[in-house]
Automatic annotation (TrEMBL):
Source taxon at top rank: Bacteria
Full protein name: ATPase BadF/BadG/BcrA/BcrD type domain-containing protein
Signal sequence extent: none
Residue ranges of domain ATPase BadF/BadG/BcrA/BcrD type in the record: 13-291
Length: 297
């Protein structure tokens, strides 16, 4: 992409940092995406240095993708939405980071998801990815549910689904419950043959590790595996309950976003499926919209 005719003062970078990946986009004054980049996990709850490294790497990759070789990060205004910074201590830690940008406007992944999904208008979002949580912004009031983190929260998320699947497989391998398709798929994914091997592989692993196992659960459910179906239904029931609480705030729109949104939607209660609206833009665009809002204050 050519850089001629681009006003550097009109460039913004939007960053969406989650438990599995960090995505950045470079946009112009018209919010047109010029380039994008994806790096590793961006949730500081699972490592401050990892998160800051991912933010910088994704931003540089976005510049490279846009062909903006003559633009430095120090010339860009950044909107940065991260999972984990709903915790005050992590928000303060990220705010104190000596970031490489001209300005950095930090907020949560929920705020940017909502801004992007509804183009800065009122609405509600449920994130179902590595983690899970719900958020609404109605009549200038923010309302949040979930987002408590793995393993003590985030029910219905990829990490939770994978974690519960491992528990079920361990019981099956101990012959306490029947071995099913799910058992075989998880064993194959982890390359293990017995419980001791499995425990060695899964011990002390982060949310991203367990989220990768969620695919085995959905694959098993597609083959009518009763245990896999029960896990997904339990998670989907929780997401449906979150949706009802959000809808009680009377948002004009409700969107489901995140890496599991497409596969989880059919498992939600029918009344909730009928209330869902497609997100208008992804969270990284919401980060740009947030930064632009903050710049004019």
């Amino acid at each position: 992409m050519f850089t001629s005719g681009i006003n550097k003062n009109e460039l913004f970078i939007g960053i969406d940092g989650g438990g599995t990946k960090c995505k950045a986009v470079i946009v112009n004054a018209k919010n047109e995406v010029l380039g994008s980049g994806i790096a590793g996990p961006g949730n500081p709850l699972h490592g401050f240095e990892q998160a800051t490294t991912s933010i910088e790497q994704s931003a540089r990759l976005a510049l490279q993708d846009a062909g903006l070789t003559d633009v430095a990060l120090s010339e860009l205004i950044a909107g940065v939405g991260l999972a984990g910074v709903n915790l005050p201590s992590l928000f303060v830690q990220m705010q104190q980071w000596q970031h490489p940008f001209k300005n950095m406007h930090l907020t949560t992944d929920l705020v940017i998801a909502c801004l992007g999904a509804h183009h800065s208008e009122e609405g509600a979002v449920i994130i179902t990815g590595t983690g899970s949580c719900g958020f609404s912004f109605v009549k200038n009031k923010s309302f949040m549910l979930g987002g408590h983190g793995f393993p003590h929260g985030d029910k219905g998320s990829g990490a939770w689904i994978g974690f519960v699947a491992c528990q079920q497989v361990l019981m099956a391998l101990d012959t306490l419950t029947p071995q099913t398709t799910l058992t075989n798929l998880v064993q194959s994914h982890l390359k293990v043959n017995n419980t001791m091997q499995m425990v060695e592989v899964i011990a002390n692993k982060p949310a991203t590790f367990y989220a990768q196992i969620a695919g085995c659960v959905f694959s098993a459910a597609a083959k009518n595996d009763a245990i896999a179906i029960a896990i997904i239904k339990d998670g989907a029931s929780y997401i449906s309950d979150i949706a009802r609480k959000l809808l009680a705030q009377t948002p004009p729109r409700l969107a489901l976003i995140g890496g599991l949104s497409e596969v989880m939607t059919p498992w939600l209660d029918a009344d909730i499926q009928n209330k869902l609206s497609a997100p208008l833009s992804p969270p990284e665009i919401g980060s740009v919209l947030y930064a632009k809002q903050q710049q004019v204050k």
